[in-house]
Amino acid sequence: MTTLRLGLARGGLEIKQFLRSRESVIFTLFFPLLLLVIFGSVFDAEIAPGVSFTQYFAAGIIAAGLLTTGFQSLAIQIPMEREKGILKRLRGTPMPRTAYFIGKVVMVMAIGAAETVVLVATAAAFYDLPVPSTAEKWVTFGWVALLGISACTLCGIAFSSLARSGRGAPAIVTPVALVLQFISGVFFQYTTIPEWMRSVASLFPLKWMTQGMRSVFLPDSFAVREVGGAWQLGHVAIVLGVWVVLGLALCVFTFRWTDRG
């Protein structure tokens, strides 16, 4: 319980530090919203009866927002803290190491929830994104978001060990996040992407997160236009669950508190 209390206290500090960083707030919270506004204003053609590209994109950008908050922000933030010696100093304090990671998870969950609310509200108010009307849809939305952001958070912590320095982290992390968004059905309709790209995307969480979000926000009639001819929510749960386990294992075996010598 002491570790949990310390972790929650650390989480409050992480949130304050995040909100005090204008760059983090703009990139993590407002950049996905800006993309939603741009795409929503430019592309309004229907891709299926009763489904506009804006609605399709909005469902994808909600998933991409969770990727940005969980994976991209941590994979950049942690190497910067490591380079400044913050992690080394924390390791030397009586605070349990687990509390540090609890704090990161608390921060990601809070910021991810706020970002999702803003994106859903904006898309529903201005771009005709249908809000889920059944309890089943809301439950699906909840577990897809929770599993998705959990997988992205753990992968972000693990990926943070690849950067040799904090200054070099954005150059390594940002291209990975952008490529995944392009091939996972965020910026383009997934079925129009070349098959080899779809094969690569299907190995990673974002493709399944976007598909799960489409099952929540798009009409059930659209399911036949998916690659598998259905929402495949069972596959979504399995792949995201596997990435949670894999991400946790990678964190345990790869995380570094200090820079490479």
UniProtKB/TrEMBL annotation:
<keyword id="KW-0046">Antibiotic resistance</keyword>
<dbReference type="InterPro" id="IPR013525">
    <property type="entry name" value="ABC2_TM"/>
</dbReference>
<keyword id="KW-0812">Transmembrane</keyword>
<keyword id="KW-1133">Transmembrane helix</keyword>
<dbReference type="InterPro" id="IPR051784">
    <property type="entry name" value="Nod_factor_ABC_transporter"/>
</dbReference>
<feature type="transmembrane region" description="Helical">
    <location>
        <begin position="99"/>
        <end position="126"/>
    </location>
</feature>
<feature type="transmembrane region" description="Helical">
    <location>
        <begin position="233"/>
        <end position="255"/>
    </location>
</feature>
<feature type="transmembrane region" description="Helical">
    <location>
        <begin position="55"/>
        <end position="78"/>
    </location>
</feature>
<keyword id="KW-1003">Cell membrane</keyword>
<feature type="transmembrane region" description="Helical">
    <location>
        <begin position="171"/>
        <end position="190"/>
    </location>
</feature>
<dbReference type="InterPro" id="IPR047817">
    <property type="entry name" value="ABC2_TM_bact-type"/>
</dbReference>
<dbReference type="InterPro" id="IPR000412">
    <property type="entry name" value="ABC_2_transport"/>
</dbReference>
<dbReference type="GO" id="GO:0043190">
    <property type="term" value="C:ATP-binding cassette (ABC) transporter complex"/>
</dbReference>
<dbReference type="GO" id="GO:0046677">
    <property type="term" value="P:response to antibiotic"/>
</dbReference>
<comment type="similarity">
    <text>Belongs to the ABC-2 integral membrane protein family.</text>
</comment>
<feature type="transmembrane region" description="Helical">
    <location>
        <begin position="138"/>
        <end position="159"/>
    </location>
</feature>
<dbReference type="Pfam" id="PF01061">
    <property type="entry name" value="ABC2_membrane"/>
</dbReference>
<feature type="transmembrane region" description="Helical">
    <location>
        <begin position="25"/>
        <end position="43"/>
    </location>
</feature>
<feature type="domain" description="ABC transmembrane type-2">
    <location>
        <begin position="23"/>
        <end position="258"/>
    </location>
</feature>
<protein>
    <recommendedName>
        <fullName>Transport permease protein</fullName>
    </recommendedName>
</protein>
<dbReference type="GO" id="GO:0140359">
    <property type="term" value="F:ABC-type transporter activity"/>
</dbReference>
<keyword id="KW-0472">Membrane</keyword>
<keyword id="KW-0813">Transport</keyword>
